[in-house]
Design a protein that fits this description.
Largest sheet: 5 strands, mixed
Strand content: 5-15%
Helix content: 40-55%
Number of helices: 8
Number of domains: 2
CATH topology of the largest domain: Rossmann fold
Strand order of the largest sheet: 2-1-3-4-5
Structural class: alpha/beta
CATH architecture of the largest domain: 3-Layer(aba) Sandwich
Length: 188
């Protein structure tokens, strides 16, 4: 029976120290720490954790949001723990899956986290719509067609140079070059 901790922050700029401090008092014997988004279940340290744990082990997390960001993923992880005979303890929510109340609360908190995430996405979409209606432009600004581009384009179309040579002259990657060609031909 081993005490194992899973710690995750979303970006390399974030610091996992707060979670580690919260978990230290539980005499953790093995740590799995990673800096990656929680929206995807395919995380290297999460996979390593599940390869490592055995029946009777307990996984400690600082909060449910560190383990999963959707109800589906969260419940899937809990089921995987149950299938392996592994308990899950979340400090922030005071949940322990070794109890029926803990199992029930896990389901409720998982649903609440997913609701919160969907609300954030909805507000973001609404904000983007308002910005677009106010004339805000998103993405990279379109570059003006230069005399160098026009010359290279005409030489290429006349068969005097290859597309590769035109790209070299203009210092452009293929996707950029062909996107510019499309824009140029559309304007002509």
């Amino acid at each position: 029976m081993m005490k194992v901790a899973y710690v995750r922050v979303s970006t390399t700029e974030q610091n996992e120290e707060r979670q580690v401090k919260a978990l230290e008092s539980h005499q953790i014997e093995k740590w799995f720490i990673e800096k990656v988004s929680g929206k995807d279940r395919n995380r290297p340290q999460l996979q390593a954790l599940f390869d490592f744990v055995r029946e009777g082990d307990t996984i400690y997390i600082e909060s449910i949001s560190r383990l999963a960001r959707s109800t589906y993923d969260f419940l899937s992880i809990v089921r995987e723990c149950e299938a392996k005979g592994v308990q899950l303890v979340s400090l922030k929510e005071s949940i322990d899956t070794s109890t029926p109340q803990g199992k029930f609360m896990l389901t409720i908190f998982g649903a609440l986290y997913e609701l919160e995430r969907e609300n954030i996405k909805q507000r973001q979409a609404e904000g983007i719509e308002v910005a677009l209606n106010n004339g805000v432009k998103f993405g990279r600004p379109k570059q003006a067609i230069t005399a160098d581009f026009t010359k290279a384009y005409k030489d290429w179309k006349a068969g005097q140079i290859t597309a590769t040579e035109a790209m070299k002259r203009l210092n452009m990657k293929p996707n950029t070059f062909y996107r510019r060609v499309k824009e140029y031909e559309h304007k002509a």
